[in-house]
Design brief:
- Helix content is 58%, strand content 15%.
- The protein is of the alpha+beta class.
- Strands 1-3-2 form a three-stranded antiparallel beta sheet.
- It has six helices and three strands, in the order αααβααββα.
- It has one domain: Orthogonal Bundle (Arc Repressor Mutant, subunit A), CATH 1.10.10.
- A hairpin with a 1-residue loop joins strand 2 and strand 3.
- Helix 3 crosses helix 6.
Amino acid sequence: MKDIFDYEIEHAPQNQCICPKYEKIINILGKRWNGLIIEVLHQKDCRFSELAREIEGVSDRMLTERLRELEHEQIIEKNVMHEGKIISTYRLTEKGKALGLAMQPLKSWAGQWIGIDE
């Protein structure tokens, strides 16, 4: 007896075997530096200079670009405070926090299966 999932698979368009939402998040995480930015912000809110220090090898220009992209996707938000001088910090949104949690099993998998030289 076929269930509803068999019906959906049989009647799905042939070119849509990958969920568009899954494809979108893989494209976001697949961009260099995005996963590391999310990982650092999953641990703590950071100023730009702290992120640049934590993520070895990222240029200021590229970090700025990636932060803007992640802001646009509502994964992070920039918080600007005026306390004598302007202080900007970045933090994960609720959406970003959920993504950070979802990335933890991948981090565990990498710890077990990926060598440092790979």
